[in-house]
Amino acid sequence: MCGAPREAGVAPVTSATTAMTGTTLDRTDAGADTGRADTGHGEAGHEGTGPEGTRYVLRTATPDDLGGARAVMLDTVYRDLKSGYVPRWHADIIDPEAAYLRPERCTLLVVEHRGEIVATGAVRDRGPQAPPNPQWVADRFPSGSTAQLCRIYVRPEHRRHGLARQLVRELGEFAVRAGGYTALYLHTDPAVPGAEPFWRSLAREVCDERTLPGGGQGIVHFELPMPVPGAVPGAVPGVVGTPAG
Questions:
Q1: Residue limits of the N-acetyltransferase domain (predicted)?
Q2: pLDDT tens digit sequence for 63-97
Q3: pTM attached to this predicted model
Q4: Residue 77 is inside which H or E element, if any?
Q5: Among 24, 77, 91, 124, which residue's beta carbon has the most beta carbons within 10 A?
């Protein structure tokens, strides 16, 4: 299952490093579950300085990051989603390299703070499947042309620093650069504190399964606007991004 947490602050993902400074970060909060470029993969690197000098680096994950990323994901599915590890939903957590690092049109981004991975965000190249999702939702977001945002998780002590919002922005930019995607899709569990209002601030509702007969899976499906190629992404207040070399 997919969805996402909190916020973020940076600029477009490029093959260079982007240095970020700032003190007033986006304060919209949220919680949830919700993944390189240049014809496929590329390096992403952004540094941000938040309140009290907190420093964050957002970048494309490497194999060395997978243990830390997996820990963030597992802690979230147990603590926030309260589902625990379910193989049919969470196989990508156990093997994120196969799910996100190897496929050219998928990615996994991480946010590092003082040497620790504190947030994750991913893109997978398949849409929602039916069942368990409604058939018309699966038909609207076919695999191959749908970039699905997944595993946008932020550790509780690092929320409200704009990290999830920036992850979403970077993942959207990745989908444009990867090519072939015509839609950005995600779904979220509204039972996770903050998840639903966060996504409603960024995306358009496609289907709220709570309104279906029997309540469906109780999740909400969303579509995000595809970024315009070459456009400058919206800046987080107080955060300045300067592409390096």
A1: 56-229
A2: 999 999 999 999 998 888 777 777 777 899 999 99
A3: 0.77
A4: helix 66-79
A5: 124
